[in-house]
Specification:
By secondary structure, this protein is an alpha+beta fold. 38% of the residues lie in helices and 14% in strands. It has a six-stranded mixed β-sheet, covered by helices on one side. It has a three-stranded antiparallel β-sheet with strand order 7-8-11, sandwiched between helices. A three-stranded antiparallel β-sheet has the order 12-15-16. The longest helix has 27 residues. The structure holds glycine and manganese (II) ion.
Length: 455
């Protein structure tokens, strides 16, 4: 893995040099200085810092999680990396595989970086990073003050190189170990949300701060809170229950973002919820099959509502026409989030979100035309969120068509989401980076005996 990833990384940097080249002329630049980032204080009133979240524009070039490092990019020149190796008795130095430096001219300085040397005299330059003090020390203006320039560099992250796809695939493999472990535990034991969260971290070999986003580990009704990160300590004993886990892993800064929903127990309600999970799983697979190059992602989002509407009718949750479930807004009350988002160094990669979605899809974060080498999630769901459903209860015509008795009975199960990570291949079809890691594990098969573990 290491040799091949090193070779892929070298090719990736060469590709970035090609992609960046036109920007220098377009924005009249001789140098673009990209900053790795500065640790952020938790509040301005104390001296505690969040772990470094590297600037994605920097990490696009190399997986170095080191505050203060600088990359000077110039047209037709090897990129120059500046890093301080000064001893600091407070902090451990970043763990580094030196092979990541091969494509760069590296300046390691045993002390503060000599800002005057990073930028050559007379060069027209800009600084790409968050730290105004560093920009000022370099005597450079901020690149992100120019919205066109920022959009142009963000757009360079949309098409993933083979190196990035390898990283995303590895991030998926790691996350699936955690999903598998948590699914197994939930099927057979008594656990709190906190214990399941810790089991996920253990199985994926990550600290909470290393995960791409806070793990969502929701038992029962909590599954209806889309970004639930409370980790309740109360232990739930065996019996009918549901679990929604939305959690990923990182590899070289690249994120996976995977959701699985489980149910355990017997009885009619558990069986109905299990059938709904299977229904969402089935239509998620249909959407993945339909996700081909040339299609606007927003139309796939619209199709998810049509498919959800059919599931509502088939499950006897809605007694009207499927089209009415969509046109009345009912499906959007049951599935209020977007179908998915671009994925990369950012869990919600920004490059595919440059166009504002239609007003009825306010939370859709991917409005691009699907194209080869894009990576994105497809994550439909269904949730019982009372505040969103209340207007439909009060609506004489639509309210009469909803099976409130069944919907209310399902509300202690919270919600369902099924999320995979996809990469668009040169054929135009999607490759699923997530599912292969579930089907190959014998433990996953065991988990299916006691719980629906979708794979
Ligand atoms: N994984 C959380 C989200 O996509 O918002
Ligand atoms: Mn997601």
């Amino acid at each position: 893995m290491t040799d091949s990833i090193t070779a892929l990384h070298r090719l990736h940097v060469a590709e970035l040099e090609r992609r960046y080249a036109p920007l220098f002329e377009r924005f009249a630049l001789d140098v673009l200085v990209v900053h790795a980032g500065t640790q952020q204080k938790k509040t301005r009133y104390d001296d505690q810092y969040w772990p470094l979240r590297p600037n994605p524009h920097f990490q696009h070039w190399l997986p170095l999680e080191e505050a203060g490092a600088l990359l000077a990019l110039r047209p037709s020149k090897k990129p120059v990396l500046w890093r301080s190796t000064a001893f600091d008795f407070w902090e451990a130095a970043a763990r580094i595989e030196r092979s990541i430096f091969e494509p760069f001219e590296v300046h390691e300085v045993d002390g503060p970086l000599p800002f005057a040397s990073v930028r050559e005299a007379g060069e027209r330059g800009l600084f790409l990073g968050e730290d105004d003090a560093v920009a000022a020390s370099l005597g450079l203006g901020r690149a992100d003050a120019n919205a066109d320039l920022l959009a142009a560099v963000d757009a360079l992250r949309v098409r993933k190189t083979p190196y990035e796809i390898a990283c995303l695939a590895e991030a998926n493999r790691r996350a699936c170990l955690g999903h598998q472990a948590v699914g197994d535990q939930f099927a057979t034991g008594d656990f709190s949300e906190l214990e399941l969260h810790l089991a996920y971290l253990r199985a994926t070999g990550q600290d909470d701060a290393e995960t791409p986003y806070k793990n969502i580990v929701a038992l029962g009704a909590a599954g209806a809170t889309l970004h639930y990160v409370r980790y309740d300590h109360g232990r739930r004993v065996q019996g009918t229950d549901s679990l929604l886990v939305d959690a990923g892993a990182c590899f070289r800064g690249y994120c996976s973002d995977i959701t699985r929903t489980h149910v355990r127990g017997s009885g009619d309600l558990a069986a109905t919820f299990r059938a709904l999970i299977e229904g969402v799983d089935r239509f998620q697979q249909i959407l993945i099959d339909r996700a081909v190059a040339g299609l606007p992602y927003e139309s796939l989002h619209d199709e998810s509502h049509a498919l959800l509407a059919s599931l509502l009718v088939d499950s006897k949750l809605f007694h009207g026409d499927a089209e009415l479930a969509v046109s009345s807004g009912l499906t959007r009350a049951l599935l209020p989030h977007g179908l998915g988002h671009s994925l990369g160094l950012q869990c919600h990669d920004v490059g595919c979100a440059s166009i504002t979605p239609r007003a009825d899809n306010p939370f859709l974060r991917n409005t691009s035309i699907i194209a080869p080498d894009q990576c994105f999630t497809i994550e439909p769901g269904i949730y019982v969120i009372e505040r969103l459903l209340a207007p439909f209860r009060a609506h004489a015509a639509i309210g009469a068509l909803v099976n409130w008795k069944l919907l209310d009975a399902l509300s202690p199960f919270g919600g369902i989401r099924v999320e995979d990570d996809l990469v668009v291949e040169s054929t135009g079809a999607c490759r699923n980076l997530t599912r292969p890691h579930f089907v190959s594990s014998p433990k996953g098969a065991a988990a299916r005996d006691g719980a629906v573990f979708l794979a």
